[in-house]
Amino acid sequence: MLRRLALAAVPLTLLVPAVAVATGNHVEISATPQPVEVVPLPCFPAGKVMLGMTNTGRKPTIADMRVSGDSALTLSRHQFSSYLPVDQLVKAPLEITVPRGTAPATHTVDLTVGKERLEVPVVIKPVPARDNLLLGEQAVASSTNGNMRLCGGVDGNADSAQWGASGWHDNTKGVFPDTYGVDFVQTTTIGRVVLQTLDSTTYPAAVMGIRDFDAQVRTGSTWTTVGAIRGNVQGRVTVTFAPLAVDALRLVIRDSNDHGYSRIVELEGYSS
Amino acid sequence: MVTRRSFLTATGAAAALALTGNLPDLVDAVGISHRTDKRPLFTLGVASGDPLPDAVVIWTRLAPGPLEPFGGMDDRTVKVEWEVAEDEMFRRVVRRGTAHARPEYAHTVHVDVRGLRPWRHYFYRFRAAGQISPIGRTRTAPAPSDEPAVTLAVASCQAFYDGFYTAYQDVVRREHDVVLFLGDYIYEVGVGPTAGVRNQAVPVDFAGEISTLDEYRARYALHKTDPDLLAAHAAAPWIVTLDDHEVEGNWAGYVSEDGLPHDDFLVRRANGFRAYWEHMPLRLDQSPDGPSIRLHRHLRYGRTADLSVLDTRQFRDDQTSTGGWLPPDEVSTDPARTITGDAQERWLLDTLGRSTSRWNVVAQQVAMAQLDRKTGPELELPMDTWNGYAASRDRVLSGVRDQGVRNFVVLTGDLHRSVASDLRVNFADPSTPAIGSEFVTTSISSGKDGVDADATGRALLAENPHVKYQNVQRGYLSCRLDRSAWTSEFRIVDRVVTPGGTASTRATLVVEDGHPGTHLA
After folding, report:
1. What does the pLDDT look like over B481-496, one tens digit per residue?
2. For burial by CB atoms within 10 Å, which of A100, A103, B153, B297 has the most?
3. Which numeric CATH code is attached to A139-270?
């Protein structure tokens, strides 16, 4: 008897969640750009899309966006919730990545707010030909500050003005050495390393940049120092050496000009 | 008769019948049991807050995956039963009812339980989908005419990645009647993959600074993965207010310290406020209306204490310069300057003026006493505190003096250091009478282990005759108020970067009834 009553009532229970759905009726979803292009490298600066919600109703509301994608895609967020004033675009970034070796294809990411839905096309691109062999490869660091990104030093952006969004520094203030570099997935020939350390009008290299570092390459499990720089005050520093087939490359940073953090805007590596 | 054991182990329809026997509850419990997700729902514990003589708010959140999107919940509203009893076995249930955990409130539940008796311990619990929550203990405020001794714990600043919340073990052990939390419950900056000193795996989603509502919600859930924090919420009611990091470091009024445009910052502020209210045991009166929240409020503990809770962030003028330690300038000494806003300042002085209680307590965020850390006649003051809003402080302290406010005590957080001070209208003249006392509680974890005294701490003692005590380790303040005295024990934890630290009393300071100012016991 109890069981029958209970089962009969199940549909009523499922009708309960009206409130959250109703708020979605006046929310417009946006995503920029479309399609989203993704390159199957771990630190490549692609796959970025700005999600948006605009409240087109008459009263401010709270909205929950659900973000879902094909299983081939890794999404940096599955939820975007916000207070929405009337007629104001509210934005949140989404990053889409795919494993190395993913074949070119088109996928979709679904964005839903209540009954509103937007399908965002996602195009997986082939890995482009690169002179800078570090670009987009998996960065490895001794530590990374909470406000910085591990990939920030190999994302192709060497502009010190965009340091905050696109650079790297360690999380051990005043403690050296720090290390930053790349582990290659296959043996790669490197003969030149270029460091762009922080060097802007506000934060000149002579004050905030990396001062002392060793460039090292690894073959198998053996690290070899291929160049050592001391007393640097420049933003862009090149270390050239006889090309070597290596499994990894890193900087061992021994001091910076403020003796605080090791700040890398971009680290590049070339075959010669 | 339902025994505690059978209640805690029963599930589904049987438990629903045993608890209430009425059909709607039974139906709902069974309906929700169709969830394929059978994980525990009450991972974030329970809490209670803002006690009145006849009422207290009880709180919980359903989150089978606390660090997952939507806490692991789908978008359905869930009925949650609650009950309040006089005994831990729930044999004498005095109130029960049903609430809704709604997705638009992150499946949090706030119940303003009325009809309780004054100055009594009560036990409460929730049930949803056949699962029973942990049991919380709370205590109502004393009757208006009574004057019992009251114990309170004062805490602030619990950076997740800087340390374990060991101090809360001591808060629980010492059985306080109420816990005051004075801000920086969460930090908005990124949490690395191993959560700093904790060596706890944290999803990569937590690596960046937060600004959307889902991110603020997830950050509360992360902080509430600490079992000592949950235990402290379950042990006593909390009275809370926020400071800057619940929104953004050093925000001031409409001004973002990250330089966000006005409209974007108001959305961020609204998101921060919303997640704050959702996760705190606050009444509906404190529920934000977009980017506005009413946190300043008045609570009474009989004739023992009047408690004014302030919000010194939402209505303040922007900090002078960086808000760091600086000499006073024309901005910080501008007579028009305010840290409370005019309305809150009038409300505070009115509330203090009308009080008939023995102890008049202001629970707020940032240091009120002058704190000069520069050796010699020049001053260097923390500009994010009342020190950067000199005229605002003058008006409040003059008002306290002119109205003859009895036993004025200010409780403060923010500094990550313990400080005890006399308050006087003119700090430059130590011969003028003290009109009250300030106790700054140190951080629960922010700043890691700390030291007994750093250069700033030594300078505070040397340069400020009204400063009676300082320490830069972690811990909280354990206070007892009675008819003869206010006693503040600075409870200090010997280490927080590893678990298992030990708490002890580093110093005890006393205010005697009718004698403004504090001294070491």
Report:
1. 999 999 999 999 999 9
2. B153
3. 2.60.120.260
